Amino acid sequence: MRTLIFTLFYLLSFTISAQTITGITTTDGDALPYVNVYLKGTQKGSVSNDDGVFSIKNIPQGKHTITASFTGYQTQRTTITVSKSDDITINFDLPESEILDEIVVTGTLKSVSRLDSPVPVEVYSTAFLKKNPTPNIFEALQNVNGVRPQINCNVCNTGDIHINGLEGPYTLVLIDGMPIVSGLSTVYGLSGIPNSLIEQIEIVKGPASSLYGSEAVGGLINIITKLPENAPRFFADSYATGWGEINLDLGFNTKVGKKANLLFGVNYFNYNNPIDNNGDNFTDLTLQNRISVFQKWNFKRKENRVFSLAGRVFYEDRWGGDMQWTSDFRGGNEIYGESIYTKRGELLGKYQLPIKEKVMFQFSYTDHDQNSVYGDTAFLAQQRIGFGQFTWDKPLKNHDLLFGAAARYNYYNDSTPATLTADEVIIPSLFAQDEIKLSLKNTLLLGARYDYDKRHGNIFTPRIAYKFKPTPDDVFRVNAGSGFRVVNIFTEEHAALTGARDVIISEELKPERSINVNLNYLKKFYTKSGAIIGLDVSAWYTHFSNLILPDYDTNPNQIIYDNLDGKAVTKGISANLDAIITSGVKLLVGATIQDVSQTENDIKERQILTENFTGTWAATYKNYKYNLSVDYTGNIYGPMRLPLLSDLDPRSQNSPVWSIQNIQLTFDGIENVEIYGGVKNLLNWTPNKGNPFIIARANDPFDKDVTFDNNGNAQVTQNNPYGLTFDPTYVYAPNQGIRAFLGLRYSLR
Length: 749
Known about the structure:
Oligomer: single chain
Membrane topology: Multi-pass membrane protein
Domain TonB-dependent receptor-like beta-barrel: 264-682
Largest sheet: 22 strands, antiparallel, barrel
Domain TonB-dependent receptor plug: 115-219
Low-confidence stretches: 1-17
Signal peptide: 1-18
Keywords: Cell outer membrane, Membrane, Receptor, Signal, TonB box, Transmembrane, Transmembrane beta strand, Transport
Number of helices: 5
Distance between the termini: 32 Å
Strand content: over 45%
Shape: globular
Radius of gyration: 28 Å
């Protein structure tokens, strides 16, 4: 127990006479070295020595706020009024700030300490998002270990999120625990979630279908928005880049009557500056005009029962293509462009029933309308998803029980030949979970889910988890479970909608199934010098049956879909190191090594567009005396197999090792204000380096000068020496090069 929380030799606000302030910085009564002690609004400050002693001289007369701050410990501050020439002594005792002990809900649908959760959950806060400011959650995840935002098209820049090497459709994205980001919005809707409204992001790697159903096969990302009562009264965050991108977040928090709190936010993003640095006469970055309006209500009820409502409307107009394209050419075959109009509405809520038992009702509804053209190919699609779920949380002696009943309504229709009639289905589900406290150090979790899909019948997904916690700072976990996924090709494969490839569905597709085992070790270290280190290591193995992946290789002019007649395996190991160092430096370093492959007819092949290793880092240094912090973030990716069109295709068959790195400076010496700026993509890396071209036949996007044989194969001609067709799907990294950015944040509490 801490023997001393905070000691002052004088009252917090009092009149003294001083020229020098001296003191000792401690934690739990022991000396704490290298603490930054400074007077806010001045350049007067000091760093405590190895014995925790500090001294600040030549203090000007007047009222001052003196602050003691050290990364990994709770900041302490007090107010003094200085006059005349007497010296004073002020001692600070800084309680330790816990790391690796955040409250999480995603792994078990219950609020629990991360160290106590039987399911490993990674947590990323708003402070992490600020280290490399981005206009949307899709780009913000680029520095999360084992998670990669994958751009699927060089022209319209849409994409999805890969976890541990698995394709985007295997990742379930939740907002406040509700599965409202799926299907069309997995490809197009992630860009509309403003970072300023996010409280934290929780990531579970590995199947979670026993709690969340279909799509949670590879893992899930739960985006938790701020509680209205915890948000600033007013906030604004805006920045611009050297490419002409402008991002603006505005919002406020207010009380409505005596029983409601409202959080309101608006995100606006605009990029209207066509750039073609790689010389193919196509835009390197899609032009966008986007607005997203969000509001969240929390209502006060008796006995602190929960009732919240949230809603969001989103509109985006994006296009990419020929540098001479305008909206007048939309849908025509004169000048090529890809134009996407997206309209989306979301509603979600949580209501705790007014009964003795803890029974929660959660619901969500989304309406997504897509109006797109890819050259002269139209893609019109509508998706409506309704979701309702009751959960009953029942602690019972050594058992923590959770029972649930859910129903999901899904309506989907598009203009492609593969969807002759609208797909409309209701999937009812039942699930149960029992977290058993075997002893103080041992916990066992058992769970199972039953879903009924009229297209595929009964689907059962069990899971088991075991946690062993021999000390307060060590956690061993073993998780095993199964997952399932029902595929909708045209909401998941952007490649099926662009270029000249024909889509071939060779059979009636069966739902995919997976079995996964995950081992996890979590450890906290404390050094004598005051550093805190967190280590999180995981190893996993996932086996898929009935795997559905697009076949780009059999016929270069086709994308063939069928169930894999064989096996597919993903396995690997990852590690995260979170270190708070005594010098005031904080490091977050991660690395993943993985093997993702399919075996058919005894032939093993690496999965396309999947790296074999990846690394991420975020380093922060804070100089409290000058109110300045430096953030250095980045990632590195190993080679991945790329989709070539033919044996003659001169582009690289495998990507090189590549890295995106960023640096940022932030000044917070003005009350309620942060000024930040820096450089993105310091190495100026773009995928055209070392390649003759990126987009195949960008000079002939409608294949007017391509000669085909009777089987539809492109022929080698004088105008087409490699026998290629137009194809923008050869993409593994952003085309956007180095650029500066400058921004300002204002927050009023």
